[in-house]
Amino acid sequence: MTDRGENVGIVIVSHSPLVARGAADMVRQMVGDSVPLAWCGGNPAGGLGTDTGAILKAIEEAWSEAGVAIFVDLGGAETNSEMAIEMIGKQRRARIAICNAPIVEGAVIAAAEASGGASLAKVVATAQELSPS
Amino acid sequence: MIVVRDPRSAVDPSALMCRVIEACRDAIVVREAYLCDLDCAIGDGDHGTNMRRGLDALAAERQRLAGMPLAEAMSAAGTILVMSIGGAAGPLYGTLLLEIGRELSTGRPETEFPEIFQHAVAAVAQRGRSSLGEKTLLDVLYPLSDELIKHVPLQHLAEKIQGFADMTIDMKAMRGRASFLGGRSIGHMDPGAASCALLAAIVCHELAKAGAA
Predict the structure, then answer these.
(1) Does residue B17 contact residue B207 with C-beta atoms inside 8 Å?
(2) Which parts of chain A register pLDDT below 50?
(3) Is A130 an active-site residue?
(4) B83, A76: Cβ pair inside 8 Å?
(5) Taking the C-alpha atoms of B111, B114, B119 and B120 in order, what is their torsion angle to the nearest 10 degrees?
(6) Among the four given CATH numbers 1.25.40.340, 1.10.357.20, 3.40.50.1360, 3.40.50.360, the one describing domain B13-209
(7) Which CATH class is domain A4-117?
(8) Which candidate among A11, A120, B176, B201 keeps its CA 20 to 30 Å from the CA of B27?
(9) Is A80 on the interface with B (CB under 8 A)?
């Protein structure tokens, strides 16, 4: 297993594929390839929206034994992400967290934290410091 | 498709399930633009299109679903809706059916459908982190569940359901995109409540017609 596989993975879920890809580009610029990263955006028909199947695929793609932190924009992205986490099965469910943080800033800060080998809890906590509780 | 079938009636459950799915799909196709219009007023305007995609996907699989035991069919239908609707409505409608399927698969008899439905509605509320009176489809599901518990005849229920959705007009949205509008959401029917009332009325009507208790 590579070092990358031991770092927490980052998933970005937006209603817009452009937003998701743009946020992912910013993450890559910050941390290079040291963190597993995947993004998805758009509904199953390719319009604006979210797609549970695409989220499941993104989680698989960014999967790390250390866990995965998900960043979402609006309501449906969160609800569909929760649904995806439920569908992925008991074994991995506890190692996936949806972060209550701004999608771009959150993903970049979380990835920076993850690239240093931080635990999922630490990655999530760092990102969530951005949001007023 | 759901609820208790009278053992004395000669209803073919597979044919009934196909008919219910087709009727639901047809109703959504006819109201697609209407649901999008409702959603344009207080949301992102795609609820009709999303529901259409979901019901089209369900209709495409109706023969396969009709061949399954009820519990399995409900779970499979829930997964199809989750995967195809694409908005927040996908996980909400999906959870409703998945939970009904899950409860039935534990061996609970169909005669306990009102209690099973009540449990599934609670799961939808949890999924959406919402409750009664927040201008969502729960404002249809909760009163519907209460009526089922009281064993209100299905045809009578079918006629009452639209009234539940109408109640959302005066509510202020607390969840979803509509909540961003605050007080300006008042005066519009919630699109999720509208689609839910439409589908629930169709299901009740078809089951009543088929002689389900």
Answers:
(1) no
(2) 1-3
(3) no
(4) no
(5) 100
(6) 1.25.40.340
(7) alpha beta
(8) B176
(9) yes
